Amino acid sequence: xxxxxxxxxxxxxxxxxxxxxxxxxxxxxxxxxxxxxxxxxxxxxxxxxxxxxxxxxxxxxxxxxxxxxxxxxxxxxxxxxxxxxxxxxxxxxxxxxxxxxxxxxxxxxxxxxxxxxxxxxxxxxxxxxxxxxxxxxxxxxxxxxxxxxxxxxxxxxxxxxxxxxxxxxxxxxxxxxxxxxxxxxxxxxxxxxxxxxxxxxxxxxxxxxxxxxxxxxxxxxxxxxxxxxxxxxxxxxxxxxxxxxxxxxxxxxxxxxxxxxxxxxxxxxxxxxxxxxxxxxxxxxxxxxxxxxxxxxxxxxxxxxxxxxxxxxxxxxxxxxxxxxxxxxxxxxxxxxxxxxxxxxxxxxxxxxxxxxxxxxxxxxxxxxxxxxxxxxxxxxxxxxxxxxxxx
Length: 392
Description:
16% of the residues lie in helices and 44% in strands.
Protein backbone atom coordinates (compact mmCIF):
# COMPACT_ATOMS: atom_id res chain seq x y z
CA UNK A 1 0.00 0.00 0.00
CA UNK A 2 2.87 2.36 0.66
CA UNK A 3 3.97 1.91 -2.95
CA UNK A 4 0.46 2.77 -4.10
CA UNK A 5 0.50 5.95 -2.01
CA UNK A 6 3.85 6.90 -3.55
CA UNK A 7 2.50 6.24 -7.05
CA UNK A 8 -0.54 8.38 -6.32
CA UNK A 9 1.78 11.15 -5.15
CA UNK A 10 3.60 11.09 -8.51
CA UNK A 11 0.21 11.60 -10.16
CA UNK A 12 -0.58 14.58 -7.95
CA UNK A 13 2.82 16.10 -8.72
CA UNK A 14 2.57 15.46 -12.47
CA UNK A 15 -0.98 16.76 -12.87
CA UNK A 16 -0.22 19.83 -10.77
CA UNK A 17 2.63 20.60 -13.19
CA UNK A 18 0.20 20.10 -16.08
CA UNK A 19 -2.22 22.52 -14.45
CA UNK A 20 0.58 25.07 -14.10
CA UNK A 21 1.42 24.80 -17.81
CA UNK A 22 -2.24 25.26 -18.77
CA UNK A 23 -2.54 28.23 -16.40
CA UNK A 24 0.51 29.83 -18.03
CA UNK A 25 -0.93 29.29 -21.51
CA UNK A 26 -4.34 30.73 -20.71
CA UNK A 27 -2.99 33.78 -18.89
CA UNK A 28 -0.82 34.55 -21.95
CA UNK A 29 -3.80 34.43 -24.27
CA UNK A 30 -3.24 38.07 -25.30
CA UNK A 31 0.58 38.14 -25.13
CA UNK A 32 2.03 39.07 -28.56
CA UNK A 33 4.18 36.33 -30.04
CA UNK A 34 3.48 33.85 -27.21
CA UNK A 35 3.79 30.16 -28.14
CA UNK A 36 1.77 27.46 -26.41
CA UNK A 37 3.67 24.99 -24.22
CA UNK A 38 2.61 21.37 -23.67
CA UNK A 39 3.76 19.18 -20.78
CA UNK A 40 4.99 15.70 -21.74
CA UNK A 41 4.06 12.81 -19.45
CA UNK A 42 6.07 9.58 -19.15
CA UNK A 43 5.64 6.45 -17.08
CA UNK A 44 8.34 5.84 -14.45
CA UNK A 45 10.59 2.81 -14.03
CA UNK A 46 9.31 -0.72 -13.42
CA UNK A 47 10.20 -3.47 -10.93
CA UNK A 48 10.66 -6.76 -12.74
CA UNK A 49 10.06 -9.96 -10.77
CA UNK A 50 10.47 -13.51 -12.08
CA UNK A 51 7.62 -15.71 -10.90
CA UNK A 52 7.91 -19.36 -9.88
CA UNK A 53 6.13 -20.54 -12.99
CA UNK A 54 8.62 -18.78 -15.25
CA UNK A 55 6.48 -15.74 -15.88
CA UNK A 56 7.51 -12.16 -15.29
CA UNK A 57 5.75 -9.54 -13.19
CA UNK A 58 6.22 -5.82 -13.95
CA UNK A 59 5.01 -3.28 -11.44
CA UNK A 60 5.24 0.41 -12.28
CA UNK A 61 6.15 3.30 -10.02
CA UNK A 62 3.88 6.01 -11.34
CA UNK A 63 4.01 8.92 -13.76
CA UNK A 64 6.74 11.45 -14.47
CA UNK A 65 7.19 14.48 -16.70
CA UNK A 66 9.74 14.90 -19.47
CA UNK A 67 9.63 18.66 -19.84
CA UNK A 68 7.56 20.93 -22.05
CA UNK A 69 7.46 21.36 -25.80
CA UNK A 70 6.64 24.59 -27.63
CA UNK A 71 4.01 24.80 -30.33
CA UNK A 72 5.46 27.23 -32.88
CA UNK A 73 2.40 27.47 -35.08
CA UNK A 74 2.05 31.14 -36.12
CA UNK A 75 -0.59 33.23 -34.41
CA UNK A 76 -2.96 35.59 -36.20
CA UNK A 77 -1.66 38.96 -37.41
CA UNK A 78 -3.73 41.87 -36.10
CA UNK A 79 -3.63 45.52 -37.12
CA UNK A 80 -2.28 47.93 -34.50
CA UNK A 81 -1.94 51.21 -36.40
CA UNK A 82 1.70 51.55 -35.29
CA UNK A 83 4.01 51.55 -38.33
CA UNK A 84 6.84 50.03 -36.29
CA UNK A 85 4.84 47.05 -35.04
CA UNK A 86 6.04 44.25 -37.30
CA UNK A 87 4.70 40.77 -37.97
CA UNK A 88 6.10 37.85 -39.91
CA UNK A 89 3.92 36.08 -42.46
CA UNK A 90 5.73 32.75 -42.54
CA UNK A 91 8.85 31.29 -40.94
CA UNK A 92 11.47 33.24 -39.05
CA UNK A 93 12.08 35.25 -35.90
CA UNK A 94 13.41 38.77 -35.36
CA UNK A 95 16.88 39.00 -33.85
CA UNK A 96 17.57 41.21 -30.83
CA UNK A 97 20.97 42.13 -29.37
CA UNK A 98 21.79 43.76 -26.03
CA UNK A 99 24.73 46.00 -25.16
CA UNK A 100 26.94 43.00 -24.35
CA UNK A 101 26.29 41.35 -27.72
CA UNK A 102 23.97 38.64 -26.35
CA UNK A 103 21.42 37.55 -28.95
CA UNK A 104 17.78 36.65 -28.46
CA UNK A 105 14.95 35.87 -30.87
CA UNK A 106 11.29 36.89 -30.90
CA UNK A 107 8.10 36.80 -32.93
CA UNK A 108 6.70 39.80 -31.05
CA UNK A 109 7.70 42.71 -33.28
CA UNK A 110 6.92 45.48 -30.79
CA UNK A 111 9.56 47.91 -32.01
CA UNK A 112 10.22 51.64 -32.12
CA UNK A 113 13.07 54.03 -32.87
CA UNK A 114 14.83 55.36 -29.78
CA UNK A 115 16.11 58.91 -29.28
CA UNK A 116 19.26 58.12 -31.29
CA UNK A 117 17.23 56.79 -34.24
CA UNK A 118 17.99 53.07 -33.68
CA UNK A 119 15.22 50.47 -33.90
CA UNK A 120 14.79 48.74 -30.53
CA UNK A 121 12.34 46.47 -28.76
CA UNK A 122 9.81 48.42 -26.72
CA UNK A 123 9.82 45.62 -24.14
CA UNK A 124 13.45 45.75 -23.01
CA UNK A 125 15.31 48.21 -25.26
CA UNK A 126 17.35 45.54 -27.06
CA UNK A 127 18.49 46.60 -30.53
CA UNK A 128 16.92 44.93 -33.56
CA UNK A 129 19.59 43.35 -35.75
CA UNK A 130 19.68 44.30 -39.43
CA UNK A 131 21.84 43.50 -42.43
CA UNK A 132 23.26 45.90 -45.01
CA UNK A 133 23.66 45.40 -48.76
CA UNK A 134 27.11 43.82 -48.21
CA UNK A 135 25.69 41.23 -45.79
CA UNK A 136 27.14 42.80 -42.63
CA UNK A 137 25.11 42.83 -39.41
CA UNK A 138 24.19 46.40 -38.52
CA UNK A 139 21.77 48.37 -36.38
CA UNK A 140 18.61 49.54 -38.12
CA UNK A 141 19.09 53.28 -37.84
CA UNK A 142 17.61 56.47 -39.26
CA UNK A 143 21.05 58.13 -39.09
CA UNK A 144 21.76 59.79 -42.42
CA UNK A 145 18.16 59.28 -43.57
CA UNK A 146 16.39 62.22 -41.93
CA UNK A 147 16.77 64.51 -44.95
CA UNK A 148 16.76 64.15 -48.72
CA UNK A 149 19.08 66.39 -50.73
CA UNK A 150 17.71 68.23 -53.75
CA UNK A 151 18.50 67.16 -57.31
CA UNK A 152 19.22 69.35 -60.31
CA UNK A 153 16.87 69.00 -63.25
CA UNK A 154 18.49 67.17 -66.12
CA UNK A 155 15.46 66.74 -68.36
CA UNK A 156 12.15 68.56 -68.81
CA UNK A 157 9.41 66.90 -70.84
CA UNK A 158 6.92 68.79 -73.06
CA UNK A 159 3.59 67.74 -74.53
CA UNK A 160 0.92 69.47 -76.59
CA UNK A 161 0.54 71.14 -79.97
CA UNK A 162 2.60 74.09 -81.25
CA UNK A 163 0.28 75.75 -83.77
CA UNK A 164 1.93 75.83 -87.18
CA UNK A 165 -0.05 78.95 -88.14
CA UNK A 166 1.51 81.27 -85.54
CA UNK A 167 4.92 82.85 -85.94
CA UNK A 168 5.82 83.16 -82.29
CA UNK A 169 4.86 81.32 -79.10
CA UNK A 170 6.21 81.53 -75.54
CA UNK A 171 5.83 78.68 -73.08
CA UNK A 172 6.13 79.92 -69.49
CA UNK A 173 6.25 78.11 -66.18
CA UNK A 174 9.21 75.94 -67.15
CA UNK A 175 10.03 75.18 -63.51
CA UNK A 176 13.35 73.44 -62.89
CA UNK A 177 15.71 72.87 -59.94
CA UNK A 178 19.39 73.73 -59.61
CA UNK A 179 22.16 71.67 -57.99
CA UNK A 180 20.96 72.57 -54.48
CA UNK A 181 17.34 71.84 -55.28
CA UNK A 182 16.22 75.46 -55.48
CA UNK A 183 13.42 76.05 -57.96
CA UNK A 184 13.78 78.44 -60.94
CA UNK A 185 11.08 79.43 -63.41
CA UNK A 186 12.26 79.67 -67.01
CA UNK A 187 10.44 80.31 -70.28
CA UNK A 188 10.90 78.96 -73.77
CA UNK A 189 10.28 81.21 -76.76
CA UNK A 190 9.46 79.51 -80.09
CA UNK A 191 9.98 81.60 -83.26
CA UNK A 192 9.00 80.17 -86.63
CA UNK A 193 11.83 79.91 -89.20
CA UNK A 194 9.62 78.15 -91.72
CA UNK A 195 10.73 80.54 -94.46
CA UNK A 196 14.28 79.26 -94.05
CA UNK A 197 13.60 75.59 -93.36
CA UNK A 198 10.02 74.26 -93.67
CA UNK A 199 8.64 73.19 -90.29
CA UNK A 200 11.55 74.65 -88.30
CA UNK A 201 11.43 76.74 -85.12
CA UNK A 202 14.11 78.64 -83.23
CA UNK A 203 13.89 77.80 -79.54
CA UNK A 204 15.33 80.30 -77.08
CA UNK A 205 15.40 79.59 -73.35
CA UNK A 206 15.14 82.54 -70.92
CA UNK A 207 15.76 82.98 -67.20
CA UNK A 208 13.66 86.09 -66.67
CA UNK A 209 14.96 88.39 -69.43
CA UNK A 210 18.37 86.71 -69.64
CA UNK A 211 18.87 84.35 -72.55
CA UNK A 212 20.19 80.94 -71.55
CA UNK A 213 20.77 79.74 -75.09
CA UNK A 214 19.14 78.91 -78.42
CA UNK A 215 18.51 75.76 -80.40
CA UNK A 216 16.26 74.55 -83.21
CA UNK A 217 13.45 72.03 -83.55
CA UNK A 218 12.15 70.78 -86.91
CA UNK A 219 8.73 69.24 -87.53
CA UNK A 220 8.07 66.89 -90.45
CA UNK A 221 4.42 66.21 -91.19
CA UNK A 222 3.52 67.71 -87.83
CA UNK A 223 5.91 65.54 -85.81
CA UNK A 224 9.37 66.44 -84.45
CA UNK A 225 12.16 65.12 -86.64
CA UNK A 226 13.77 62.07 -84.95
CA UNK A 227 17.19 63.69 -84.65
CA UNK A 228 15.83 66.94 -83.17
CA UNK A 229 13.54 65.86 -80.32
CA UNK A 230 15.92 66.69 -77.48
CA UNK A 231 17.37 70.20 -77.21
CA UNK A 232 20.31 70.61 -74.82
CA UNK A 233 21.09 73.88 -73.01
CA UNK A 234 23.74 74.83 -70.46
CA UNK A 235 22.07 76.64 -67.61
CA UNK A 236 24.10 78.47 -64.92
CA UNK A 237 21.86 79.96 -62.18
CA UNK A 238 23.34 82.84 -60.21
CA UNK A 239 25.72 81.50 -57.57
CA UNK A 240 25.28 77.87 -58.71
CA UNK A 241 27.25 75.46 -60.84
CA UNK A 242 26.32 75.18 -64.51
CA UNK A 243 24.09 72.23 -65.39
CA UNK A 244 23.03 70.50 -68.57
CA UNK A 245 19.32 70.90 -69.21
CA UNK A 246 17.52 68.88 -71.89
CA UNK A 247 14.13 69.93 -73.24
CA UNK A 248 12.46 66.71 -74.40
CA UNK A 249 9.91 66.94 -77.22
CA UNK A 250 10.13 63.24 -78.08
CA UNK A 251 6.55 62.17 -77.37
CA UNK A 252 3.08 63.71 -77.57
CA UNK A 253 4.37 66.92 -79.21
CA UNK A 254 2.91 68.02 -82.53
CA UNK A 255 2.80 71.08 -84.80
CA UNK A 256 -0.47 71.24 -86.68
CA UNK A 257 -2.59 74.18 -87.76
CA UNK A 258 -4.81 75.35 -84.89
CA UNK A 259 -5.19 79.07 -85.46
CA UNK A 260 -3.69 81.13 -82.66
CA UNK A 261 -4.17 78.36 -80.08
CA UNK A 262 -1.11 76.40 -78.96
CA UNK A 263 -1.28 73.88 -76.10
CA UNK A 264 2.44 73.16 -75.81
CA UNK A 265 3.53 73.07 -72.14
CA UNK A 266 6.06 71.46 -69.84
CA UNK A 267 4.45 68.49 -68.06
CA UNK A 268 7.25 66.97 -66.00
CA UNK A 269 10.89 67.27 -65.00
CA UNK A 270 13.26 65.04 -63.05
CA UNK A 271 14.62 67.49 -60.45
CA UNK A 272 13.31 68.06 -56.97
CA UNK A 273 13.76 70.27 -53.92
CA UNK A 274 15.30 69.13 -50.63
CA UNK A 275 12.95 67.30 -48.28
CA UNK A 276 12.69 66.15 -44.69
CA UNK A 277 11.65 62.76 -43.37
CA UNK A 278 7.88 62.44 -43.23
CA UNK A 279 7.44 58.69 -42.79
CA UNK A 280 9.48 55.56 -42.11
CA UNK A 281 8.28 51.99 -42.48
CA UNK A 282 9.37 48.53 -43.59
CA UNK A 283 8.44 46.81 -46.84
CA UNK A 284 7.61 43.11 -47.20
CA UNK A 285 11.31 42.25 -47.58
CA UNK A 286 12.04 43.90 -44.25
CA UNK A 287 13.86 46.87 -45.79
CA UNK A 288 13.68 50.22 -44.02
CA UNK A 289 11.97 52.69 -46.38
CA UNK A 290 12.03 56.44 -45.72
CA UNK A 291 9.58 58.85 -47.40
CA UNK A 292 10.32 62.58 -47.65
CA UNK A 293 8.29 65.74 -48.02
CA UNK A 294 9.63 66.18 -51.57
CA UNK A 295 8.02 62.92 -52.65
CA UNK A 296 11.28 60.97 -52.76
CA UNK A 297 12.01 57.68 -51.00
CA UNK A 298 15.22 56.04 -49.80
CA UNK A 299 16.01 52.55 -48.58
CA UNK A 300 18.20 51.62 -45.64
CA UNK A 301 19.30 48.33 -44.11
CA UNK A 302 17.03 45.27 -43.91
CA UNK A 303 15.84 43.17 -41.00
CA UNK A 304 17.89 40.04 -40.36
CA UNK A 305 15.74 37.01 -39.55
CA UNK A 306 16.60 33.68 -37.95
CA UNK A 307 15.23 30.12 -38.23
CA UNK A 308 15.73 27.26 -35.77
CA UNK A 309 16.89 23.85 -37.10
CA UNK A 310 14.49 21.92 -34.86
CA UNK A 311 12.17 22.57 -31.95
CA UNK A 312 14.88 21.17 -29.63
CA UNK A 313 17.05 24.19 -30.50
CA UNK A 314 14.66 26.64 -28.76
CA UNK A 315 14.85 27.77 -25.17
CA UNK A 316 12.02 29.94 -23.83
CA UNK A 317 13.64 32.86 -21.95
CA UNK A 318 10.47 34.76 -21.06
CA UNK A 319 9.62 38.29 -22.11
CA UNK A 320 8.41 36.98 -25.52
CA UNK A 321 12.02 36.02 -26.33
CA UNK A 322 13.84 32.79 -27.10
CA UNK A 323 17.43 31.61 -27.13
CA UNK A 324 19.51 28.88 -28.71
CA UNK A 325 19.48 25.53 -26.90
CA UNK A 326 21.51 22.31 -27.05
CA UNK A 327 24.32 23.96 -29.00
CA UNK A 328 22.34 24.00 -32.26
CA UNK A 329 23.19 26.85 -34.62
CA UNK A 330 20.36 28.83 -36.19
CA UNK A 331 20.08 29.88 -39.84
CA UNK A 332 19.87 33.58 -40.70
CA UNK A 333 18.65 35.38 -43.80
CA UNK A 334 16.48 38.12 -45.26
CA UNK A 335 12.69 38.23 -45.38
CA UNK A 336 11.17 36.81 -48.53
CA UNK A 337 14.28 34.78 -49.38
CA UNK A 338 14.52 31.01 -49.14
CA UNK A 339 12.24 29.62 -46.45
CA UNK A 340 11.88 32.95 -44.63
CA UNK A 341 8.50 34.64 -44.49
CA UNK A 342 7.68 38.21 -45.44
CA UNK A 343 7.38 41.24 -43.17
CA UNK A 344 4.14 43.11 -42.59
CA UNK A 345 4.19 46.55 -41.00
CA UNK A 346 1.51 47.87 -38.65
CA UNK A 347 0.55 44.43 -37.32
CA UNK A 348 1.46 42.19 -34.39
CA UNK A 349 1.34 38.43 -34.15
CA UNK A 350 -0.92 37.46 -31.27
CA UNK A 351 -0.65 34.37 -29.09
CA UNK A 352 -1.36 31.00 -30.70
CA UNK A 353 -3.12 29.72 -27.57
CA UNK A 354 -6.21 27.64 -28.45
CA UNK A 355 -8.50 28.35 -25.52
CA UNK A 356 -10.91 25.51 -26.28
CA UNK A 357 -8.05 22.98 -26.29
CA UNK A 358 -6.67 24.41 -23.05
CA UNK A 359 -10.05 24.02 -21.34
CA UNK A 360 -10.29 20.46 -22.61
CA UNK A 361 -6.83 19.67 -21.25
CA UNK A 362 -7.81 21.37 -18.01
CA UNK A 363 -10.63 18.85 -17.51
CA UNK A 364 -8.21 15.99 -18.20
CA UNK A 365 -5.74 17.33 -15.63
CA UNK A 366 -8.52 17.77 -13.07
CA UNK A 367 -9.79 14.22 -13.59
CA UNK A 368 -6.25 12.84 -13.38
CA UNK A 369 -5.59 14.75 -10.16
CA UNK A 370 -8.87 13.51 -8.64
CA UNK A 371 -8.09 9.94 -9.66
CA UNK A 372 -4.61 10.11 -8.11
CA UNK A 373 -6.13 11.54 -4.93
CA UNK A 374 -8.61 8.68 -4.85
CA UNK A 375 -5.80 6.15 -5.22
CA UNK A 376 -4.03 7.67 -2.20
CA UNK A 377 -7.25 7.71 -0.16
CA UNK A 378 -8.03 4.08 -1.02
CA UNK A 379 -4.49 2.91 -0.25
CA UNK A 380 -4.61 4.80 3.04
CA UNK A 381 -7.95 3.15 3.96
CA UNK A 382 -6.53 -0.28 3.17
CA UNK A 383 -3.43 0.51 5.23
CA UNK A 384 -5.64 1.54 8.19
CA UNK A 385 -7.55 -1.74 7.92
CA UNK A 386 -4.23 -3.59 7.96
CA UNK A 387 -3.16 -1.75 11.09
CA UNK A 388 -6.47 -2.68 12.76
CA UNK A 389 -5.93 -6.37 11.95
CA UNK A 390 -2.38 -6.26 13.27
CA UNK A 391 -3.59 -4.43 16.40
CA UNK A 392 -6.00 -7.27 17.22
